[in-house]
Write a structure and sequence with these properties.
Elements (H helix, E strand, L loop, with lengths): L1 E6 L8 E7 L3 E8 L3 H10 L2 E5 L6 H11 L12 H4 L5 H10 L12 H16 L12 E3 L2 H7 L13 H10 L13 H6 L1 H17 L3 E2 L6 H7 L4 E2 L7
Helix pairs in contact: 1-5
């Protein structure tokens, strides 16, 4: 079985993808940086499940606000402070990630992360019309992931590992991942992952896709089932089964 991982950027040149195979042994395969929309769709179609490091949707409250504002039907805010705006910045899953890890995901409503989210929305639409199950709650062929929060759950360094200047930390992280996946075969892909954080995050995304498929990640609560189908759900690992 093949599990895909995508570190999605707004531009193809900074988008990383990776595959992790499970043939009795987990093995990293086909790590690339510089991936267009067609290659992204092909990866999803070729994989049992693909982990995507990008918001899959927007907050319900933000979507309602935009629709009402466009129609000229928005009511005046009850409060004059910024609280009503902050309520539209975070999705349900963003708040769960913040509470569990202390890491606050970038706001897809109010930050530059919206650019790659828009790109994914186009790929999602293409896959959906082809009949691919791209449910945003992770029940189909894709799941939303967050590499930094994943590392935090594994008690590994989750900040300061990106950028060319932090290659040494990525080298150390690659070694430390053996605490989580003792039998992981990197197949010589350590260098590209150490040199480019987009490649490293893509491998983490693929590993999370594997854990989601194995029911070793935390699903959305039943009471949030409707909202996460629209907003997306960031899958985080269960910690205890992996760390000794």
């Amino acid at each position: 079985m093949i599990f895909g991982g995508v570190d999605l950027a707004a531009e193809a040149r900074r988008t990383g993808i990776a595959e992790v195979s499970d043939d009795g042994e987990l093995a990293v395969k086909n790590v690339h940086v510089g991936v267009d929309d067609e290659q992204l769709a092909d990866l999803v179609l070729a994989s049992v499940k693909t982990g995507l490091d990008v918001p899959l949707g927007w907050p319900d409250s933000f979507v309602r606000h935009v629709v009402e504002h466009a129609a000229g039907e928005m009511l005046p805010p009850i409060s004059t402070d910024v609280s009503w705006r902050r309520a539209m910045a975070m999705r349900t899953t963003d708040l769960v990630v913040r509470d569990r890890t202390g890491i606050v995901p970038l706001s897809v409503s109010a930050d530059k992360i919206a650019y790659p989210a828009l790109r994914w929305a186009g790929v999602e639409a293409r896959l959906r019309v082809q009949g691919t199950d791209v449910a945003r709650d992770g029940s189909g062929r894709i799941c939303e992931v967050y590499p930094a929060a994943t590392l935090k759950c594994w008690l590994l360094p989750s900040r300061g590992y990106k950028g060319k200047q932090n290659k040494a930390l990525r080298v150390d992280l690659i070694t430390q991942l053996t605490r989580v996946f003792p039998s992981l075969n990197w197949n010589g892909h350590q260098e590209i992952c150490a040199s480019d954080d987009n490649a490293f995050d893509a491998v983490l995304a693929a590993l999370m896709a594997y854990l989601v498929h194995q029911d070793l990640a935390v699903p959305p609560p039943p009471e949030a089932s409707d909202v996460v189908l629209r907003e997306g759900w960031i899958w985080l690992p269960e910690t205890d089964p992996f760390l000794g």
